[in-house]
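Researcher: I'm preparing a figure for a lab meeting and need a structural model of a single chain. I don't have an experimental structure, so a prediction will have to do for now. The sequence is pasted below. Please return the structure as tokens so I can convert it later.
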Amino acid sequence: MKSHAHEGPRSGSVESFGPPVDFALQTIAIAQFEVRKLLRDPTEVFTRSVQPTLWLLVFGQVFVRTRAIPTGALGYLDFMTPGVLAQSVLFTSIFYGIAIIWERDLGILQKMLVTPAYRGALVLGKAASAAARALAQTVIIYAVALALRIHLRFDPLAILGIALAIVLGSALFSTFSLVIACIVKTRERFMGIGQVLTMPLFFASNAIYPLDMMPDWLKVVARGNPLTYLVDALRSLMVVGSHTVFGYGVDLAVQLVSLVALLLVASRLYPKVAT
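Model: Understood. Here is the structure written out token by token.
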């Protein structure tokens, strides 16, 4: 019997407006469902904001005094703040896949998979909800940065670019998280792998020190790390006097290509996590 695991809506099962519109509507529906969970428990946003806040208040304050990391015309806290924001996006998104395992154990995932919705819409909708969480945390990090007198940009185009970068970055890493969840299938293994991946991704990037400080082998790793391009975009858009190293086009292209590739993989693996 032919499998319908990766097909979209079947004709006659639901009202259809055409594949592109159906895909968009299904994505929005899934995202709304996930965001409602956040609205019912908004304390999650604040608890997840504790770690990046401590990075700014403790780690950043110590390294400002040591002056061990050359950051050019930028003060170290100014240089570090976009990296901490990117870290917040990474750490929130990379553990997002554990929710998929919970949904499978509770039987929710199986119910979603028997609907005629596009599998890609299910994946992208969850990625979009992760972006909503990341944007909520961004407001808190901005408030802390203002209290520390970080020289932030507030012109509308910069704010719009920051929001776009955060949405894209959180969607990328949450989809990566979902791929991991589809492969390992147990909470214990997922947590172990997530913890193993987050710190190398963070430290093998330009989040807390510039690429020029890295040894040659680490520069190669950092240039293959999508987080590096997220930090580069955020730093140039967020901090007064900062400039992009790779260019906005490259930053956007690397993240977008990585996201599309992961969405294709996750769409194929997603139905298998229910088994």
